[in-house]
Amino acid sequence: MDDRVQQSRLSPPPDMVIPPQRYSGEANHAEEAARIFRRCWMFVGFTDDLRNDNDFITADVAGTSVLVQNFDGELRAYHNVCTHRYSLIHLRPCGNGKPVCPYHGWVFNRDGVPVGIPGNREYFALDDAAKKRLALRRFEVAVRGRFVFVRLEPAGPGLDEQLGAYGAVLDHLSDLFTDRIDEGVLPWNANWKAALETALEVYHVDATHPETFKSYVKKVWICSYEGEHSRGVSQLSDGSARWWDGVAQKMGLPRSDRLESYDHYLIFPNLAIGVSHGALMSVQTYDPVGPDRCELHFRLFLGETSKPQTKGGAARKAVEANVSGFNRTILGEDQRVAEATHKGLTQVQAPAVLGSCEERIAAFHRAWLARMDVE
After folding, report:
1. Does residue 186 sit in the same domain as residue 317?
2. What keywords would UniProt list here (predicted)?
3. 178 and 30, same structural domain?
4. Are residues 230 and 353 in the same domain?
5. What is the pLDDT of residues 54-81, one digit of tens each?
């Protein structure tokens, strides 16, 4: 699967890193939205939530509310804003229902056209041509495996080209990890980049996670790169590996035959995927909601059990509670240092010092600087 992924190491420290001033400020936030988040294919959810006619998901892509909806088996993406008086249309993160504005009841069809307007004849007198001019703005949508992506600006490479060799990774993960066991959205008082960087190195583990992640993995971090994206692999500790072996056997959980350690992927700009011992998948996005705030959206998946009698049982519930609690604790520890780092970034001018143990951060910085056209 990863034969085409080039193995490399950056020469630390890098000549260029993201200046601390670029982690805050409305102008920087707006420029990132225009140059990165509107031009990249952005992960917005899973086809799991879009299986049926009129199933929908919503997402905020750097300030733009997006809906993806199943119209008779076809996925289409639109601006989730009514063209009448600009209320959001779908107010929930996912569900089932036609695109109906909750404010005045305008109904939009598969082409984004308002075909149901209460009192149209009496109050608006909009003919078909006028209705078409009020169609929702449409966005590109593409799927790889079960991962759904949207792009706001139409120009640029297709999704498969942007993903490169990691497209096959998403296919593999989609086939294996089908059972969602936890999901949440956590508000962080930190720029999305400062938040994301907590996931791109294990150098911080001893100090930040002394009672949690420190004992989960060994102090080995092998990195590789695919375009703007990156992968870090760390060996699980012997105790963690034994625990997962026992859980997989007792619960009848499938395991990846390709990802046997702790494998962590970054799909630029903000999609982070971690796989533990081939048995658990964590999917996280670090979504900017302002220059000084982001939301961490996390999902945890196991594979479909070969022992269906274990689902809903006490042992299975205990495993899920253990895994979910462990994940939430680690995220809380990362949140603490990300928010502390963001406060520090607003008070300095000099660039950060990156060591060889932080090479994935250096690679992320280079990709960001290139996208932002910073020389």
Report:
1. yes
2. 2Fe-2S, Dioxygenase, Iron, Iron-sulfur, Metal-binding, Oxidoreductase
3. yes
4. yes
5. 999 999 999 999 999 999 999 999 999 9
